[in-house]
Amino acid sequence: MKKTISIPEGVSVEKKGQILVVTGPKGSLQRELVDPDVEMKVSGEAVEFSSKRDRRKINALTGTFAAHLNNMITGVTKGFEASLKVVYSHFPMKVSVEGSEVVIQNFLGERSSRRINILEGVEVQVKKDDVTVSGINKEDVGQTAGRIEKITTVKGFDRRVFQDGIHLVSKTHPMEA
Fold this sequence. Notes:
alpha+beta; single chain
């Protein structure tokens, strides 16, 4: 099985051992893609992934490597973003960014604030009740958005009644150019 990914203009792809480095206008990403049964060839205009044996798992891994490269190329050209919405009914929740942390105050009337570390290369913006997580690495953007959503999950109460929290509105998707 072969998967060929074309490299757009303004993006360069280098292979350093088993590490693939993708550089574009928004930055640079690198990822280790290692498997003895998947071969990777980088030419000037395309990257070709091919499986040495025709097995279902190896073909699946070939497609996974191609998808990772596609996401890296999209990240360094457009970037990714996820949108979240702050929802509260009685206690007004305050969300802010302090350095490399997201701080949530007065969640369900709690006196202590909840804090989440922002992963490296990810930017979080808060405008009233909207939280936007953006960056060039799709996995880091999704992980940060997931952490923000998880820390405000109400436990021990009926979720249909207690809907307070920060909820994901749109999943990680490429940013509009």
